[in-house]
């Protein structure tokens, strides 16, 4: 069976990485379409992406910054028209975006319904593990399934999984919320170790503010999911 694979890349101020991210996946034969959704960037992300001359690449610009969840939903409305396999990929992966091939192979082999990229350990010290620990333990408590990469945004789905969602959850809790829903619906998730790298947040004020927002959003999503699945 011939599959149509669409990759959605939500991008916000990724001018320094988006070119490498795109150029390292356009030659992967299995990928039919790459949808870049510029989330109201204030830099020239959209211009750089639009200059990639390849029929696979389709670039869309939102009128203002609306968040990752909104950008993913925007891309899904386009990709769902043709694709039977859909992937989410961050715009800041640079040349390591080519590792998405490791996620595509197992989904084509029907090893699971969803494949999630598991990153190697961070090269610099980030947070204190509270956000990652909250996400991992909450998914385990609610579903009985232990996963290491609950926060990873690099994922490949069979179309039928995404059709279960009216829309992708908004905010930084998007991955955790989706993971709980997918497992509750009985879909099989497989984690695959990849050699991907992206922009890491350090132990500075900006990093701690970011992780604080993540923690808040995840707690909010978990509260909602406990109501939905009780």
Automatic annotation (TrEMBL):
<dbReference type="Pfam" id="PF00535">
    <property type="entry name" value="Glycos_transf_2"/>
</dbReference>
<dbReference type="InterPro" id="IPR050256">
    <property type="entry name" value="Glycosyltransferase_2"/>
</dbReference>
<dbReference type="InterPro" id="IPR029044">
    <property type="entry name" value="Nucleotide-diphossugar_trans"/>
</dbReference>
<feature type="domain" description="Glycosyltransferase 2-like">
    <location>
        <begin position="6"/>
        <end position="129"/>
    </location>
</feature>
<protein>
    <submittedName>
        <fullName>Glycosyltransferase family 2 protein</fullName>
    </submittedName>
</protein>
<dbReference type="InterPro" id="IPR001173">
    <property type="entry name" value="Glyco_trans_2-like"/>
</dbReference>
